[in-house]
Amino acid sequence: MQFETIILGAGAAGMMCAIHAGRDVLLLDHAKAPGEKIRISGGGRCNFTNMHAGPANFLSQNPHFAKSALARYTQWDFLDLVGRHGIDWHEKTLGQLFCDDSAKQIVAMLLDEMTQAGATMWLQTTIASVDKTETGFRLVIESDGRRKTVDCRHLVIATGGKSIPKMGATGLAYDIARQFGLTLTDIRPALVPLTFPDGRFTGLAGVALPVRVSCNATRFDEAMLFTHRGLSGPAILQISSYWREGDTIRVNLFPNSDPFEALRAQRQQAGRKNLSTVLAQMLPSRLADYLTREWQIAGNLGDQSDAALGALCDRLTGWDLTPTGSEGYRTAEVTLGGIDTDGLSSKTMMSKTVPGLYFIGECVDVTGWLGGFNFQWAWSSGFAAGSAI
Ligand code: FDA
């Protein structure tokens, strides 16, 4: 069987590409249903884009690579599509846009657009091999319990990264890239909770508070959550993309106020209060208790010199923590790194050395922050390849 275009992966990027790739498109996926990550994303409401999306919200060895695709299919283009399908949405925080109702609406919208575009989709299909032919590519696949050969002129790889193997993530895109001589950057789990040894924070599990967290000259002001295994919450997921084994992260527990001035003022009014009691009024009490024990905080507020209070506040605003690892691909929202963008055209996402072979979405070395940026990259890169075909 011959198709003009075959797209591997019916996720966010693959479906967007199928909508724009013109006639005679076949979309293949080994899953039972398309867009499974869309369906479960954003707690079932899908954080489908971000109002502030721009190149600065993405990590890549080449920070300029994403500019072209992001500029040609923007968050406003996607919002326009959402609007045309009558899907109601809201901004939750920091420009993050979610469905009012259900993420399933986004999947249904993409399927509807694909039907209108005339694309064919085969699910529960295994890719056995991919080879170059004189005019394009030949794939051997298993579909409906039968081995089949399908040919195409354009082959788009949109099988995503390695995050969440239980949801069907595989390294197929990386294998195909290597097979065709493209290089890969280091890949690692990102937007992932960080772990600490010996159940260090077990007693704090469930405590959350706003923090500023920094690592390797990048910082985020968002919420942090203590878990049985370590640290999570948006601030930690964000910084995990910048953290490497052995690095320390610095946590400021007072991102929006000056604890030194607050403690000095309290000292004047309530000097007889125990320092740890005062801390428990300024921080979640379980965390204040933990720090009191860890840092051996003792004595009344009135007994503390400016220097002693200053030293305490330096620790409260610069708590250095060294994670031992991350929860890995098991829970990571994305895979950082991927197919080296040096080998791809930033306009079309086509390989510079293998004409007709395209890579889009998460498998490419373009990784967004938390907050709808990864879906925006999937929409933008899917559109770039689709409209170039
Ligand atoms: P995606 O992973 O979506 O699709 C790849 C497709 O390829 C899948 O359908 C898979 O079955 C198929 N496939 C894989 N290997 C195959 C093989 N060997 N053979 C055949 N088919 C194969 N982002 C965001 O912007 N906002 C959000 O709210 C969230 N929330 C979120 C929650 C959770 C729990 C996760 C895990 C991730 C998110 N993300 C997110 C990230 C976002 O889901 C992700 O970046 C995009 O889905 C990437 O889109 P792709 O199309 O590139 O891959």
TrEMBL record:
It comes from the Bacteria. Residues 4-387 form the RsdA/BaiN/AoA(So)-like Rossmann fold-like domain. Keywords: FAD, Flavoprotein. InterPro entries: BaiN-like (IPR004792), BaiN-like_dom_sf (IPR023166), FAD/NAD-bd_sf (IPR036188), RsdA/BaiN/AoA(So)-like_dom (IPR055178), RsdA/BaiN/AoA(So)_Rossmann (IPR057661). SUPFAM superfamilies: FAD/NAD(P)-binding domain (SSF51905), HI0933 insert domain-like (SSF160996). PANTHER family: OS12G0638800 PROTEIN (PTHR42887). This is Flavoprotein, family.
